[in-house]
């Protein structure tokens, strides 16, 4: 187990009974000027927008709507200006990971004189800046942004999609599973795929003998595998929504990655896909994950894939390679049972003309050729993209 | 899954590389007057006492040595006086759970005018008090006190042993597994038994459909089952010590108990044993746990014991009662492989004259007859104590 530090101050309020009773007091402790950050009209359709505004009473609310999936630097610039112009005391983010990601970077940009893209490409600059407190109401179980320090911001004009870490995780996160009852099937599945990918990225790691992290990850994987199909079939099943929501947070609040090397592979490969084609992140991950697993399985990685088969997929037997291959097939089949789009053409990517550039950017950005669990060269990355053009072949 | 809140601000510094570089700065941020709380001479024998004092340099150090296992209210009173007399800014606790438990209550008592036993029997009084920051250097993997709000304090004159919760968990905890290399076999085993018991208490719970917590607990149980025997046989195996140490923290920092009812049974039963006979807490738990399991297995609890058998003990089969019984036998045999004392006479308790009083206090103190996973009457508790007088019978 490697040395680590852990310090996470996010105050979690989980369940049905918190928002109405606690939101006002939570915000008011920071001041009276609130920047309300949210996405599109779904918030108004579900009634959550009116409910939240009703709870804010006498607080001065400035609105920043229109945060899109794969949040754009233009939204951050707009938020920076609003935060300064209105002397914002606290940001209230209502939405999924994109909205919370944006809120966290705006919280830093409020104290920054220059263009906020600097803070995305040079996260070190954020560490010395103050950061506005972010309070969030989560509406999608997926990214874990509600209890971590990270954000992923895109500039579609370049196009680039980059991760950045701030000094603080959200101050207070309200996690009410009933708010995800209205999440459409496709987004529920994409969210579950995202959670599962976060767990895979941390599980397939070169650090040895870290059973605390590995065994908790196995437990979270089993939880997502069990409850995601139920949430897809029964959108208002509270326990399914609750297990997915809390698993999403636990999958990426930092805890299950402690003491590991924690270099990721599939996310850098996917970020190029959604930077170039603006596809849904979780669906990109669902497409790439089984192809990456097939690439990554070799004599050296076989024991860990076999452990994955036994502990997560209930596979029994003595032939580790057979178990490992079974685990990949089971992973693919589970992802396919959730997601109807499981190839790149399914999401509208029908030619391979950009694969070389994407592979180059992914390998460089993620140091995949040197640091990944199984090193990925540009040629390997191109092959993983190409394998994703057609149905999964075992 | 039940509603919950979670907020834990402890800053964890895990591994070999932190204490020498960071201890001084961590303490100095709070001020210059340090109360150094520790136990007995083992700290001086191992050289840790000199090492720590050397790191404190120009800080003003007041010492409170002699914190015993099952820490006594007399130590808290002494610490309260020292903290006031020396205008202490921060408490540095160096030791195991007992030392950290004592430090946390002294941290509250420093702001209390009355006798600190009030704070033990009425923890609500601590919530309105300030609390000195506690920094600790952990030397035993067991109680989880390094990342939680609880303390257990005894008054041997009554005799009583009571749990109390403060408003804050430790500010900073240094967890260096190499500091546990010198822990004797008996204490290593007792610590592992304590960790396992914490996990059992949270696992055997009436809250349903909380797979995030249950599956992480299963993973932590597997980790402890794997690494405790290695730590016992190879005291300087870093990975064994590291997995045990971090599992101990994760087992009782609150996370794996979220969303559950979280009423405990074996700890209240054991607290009466160590209150009356001052035995080692972890050994008392090792003795009681299999007897409690045998008591708790019935038609209603059978499915959870069977799940425990499959997920934790790798038992396969279709007969849930057989699986459940196997899991209890496996639990007993594993505890016995670690602990040489597995009956009450082994720890010097040879007559049953106090059992009725202990059972009465345990049932009342833990609300065992109404709130436990399987309700325990006074008669049941007496029977569990009696079953602990002789070798475990399946």
UniProtKB/TrEMBL annotation, chains A, B:
InterPro entries xref list: ADH_Fe/GldA, ADH_Fe_C, ADH_Fe_CS, BDH-like
Domain Alcohol dehydrogenase iron-type/glycerol dehydrogenase GldA: start-end pairs: 10-177
Domain of life: Bacteria
The entry's keywords: Oxidoreductase
GO molecular function: alcohol dehydrogenase (NADP+) activity; butanol dehydrogenase (NAD+) activity; metal ion binding; methylglyoxal reductase (NADPH) (acetol producing) activity
Pfam families: ADH_Fe_C, Fe-ADH
Domain Fe-containing alcohol dehydrogenase-like C-terminal: 188-389
Transmembrane segments: none
Entry GO terms, CC: cytosol
PANTHER family assigned: ALCOHOL DEHYDROGENASE YQHD
Protein name: NADH-dependent butanol dehydrogenase A
Species whose genome carries this gene: Ligilactobacillus salitolerans
């Amino acid at each position: 187990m490697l040395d680590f530090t852990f310090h996470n101050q996010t105050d979690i309020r989980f369940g049905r009974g918190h928002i109405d009773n606690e939101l006002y007091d939570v915000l008011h402790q920071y001041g009276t000027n609130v920047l309300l950050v949210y996405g599109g009209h779904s918030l108004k359709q579900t009634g959550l927008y009116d409910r939240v505004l009703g709870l804010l009473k006498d607080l001065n609310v400035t609105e920043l709507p229109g945060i899109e999936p794969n949040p754009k630097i233009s939204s951050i610039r707009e938020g920076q200006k609003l935060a300064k112009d209105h002397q914002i005391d606290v940001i209230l983010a209502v939405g999924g990971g994109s909205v919370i990601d944006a809120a966290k970077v705006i919280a830093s940009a409020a104290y920054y004189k220059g263009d906020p893209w600097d803070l995305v490409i040079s996260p070190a600059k954020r560490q010395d800046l103050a950061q506005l407190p972010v309070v969030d109401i989560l509406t999608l179980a997926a990214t874990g942004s509600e209890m971590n320090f990270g954000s992923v911001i895109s500039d579609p004009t370049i196009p680039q999609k980059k991760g950045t870490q701030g000094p603080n995780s959200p101050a207070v996160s309200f996690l009410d599973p009933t708010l995800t009852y209205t999440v459409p099937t496709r987004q529920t599945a994409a969210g579950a795929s995202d959670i599962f990918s976060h767990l895979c990225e941390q599980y397939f790691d070169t650090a040895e003998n870290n059973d605390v992290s590995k065994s908790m990850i196995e437990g979270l994987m089993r939880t997502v595998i069990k409850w995601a199909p139920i949430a897809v079939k029964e959108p208002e099943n509270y326990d399914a929504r609750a297990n997915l929501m809390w698993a999403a947070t636990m999958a990426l609040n930092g805890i299950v990655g402690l003491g590991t090397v924690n270099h990721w592979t599939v996310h850098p490969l996917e970020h190029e896909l959604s930077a170039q084609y603006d596809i849904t992140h979780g669906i990109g991950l669902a497409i790439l994950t089984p192809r990456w697993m097939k690439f990554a399985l070799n004599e050296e990685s076989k024991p860990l894939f076999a452990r994955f088969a036994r502990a997560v997929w209930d596979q029994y037997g003595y032939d580790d390679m057979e178990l490992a291959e079974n685990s990949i097939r089971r992973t693919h089949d589970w992802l396919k049972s959730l997601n109807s789009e499981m190839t790149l053409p399914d999401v509208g990517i029908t030619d391979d003309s950009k694969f070389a550039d994407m592979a180059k950017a992914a390998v460089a950005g993620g140091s995949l050729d040197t640091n990944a669990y199984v090193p990925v060269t540009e040629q390997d990355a191109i092959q993983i993209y190409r394998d994703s053009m057609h149905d999964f072949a075992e």
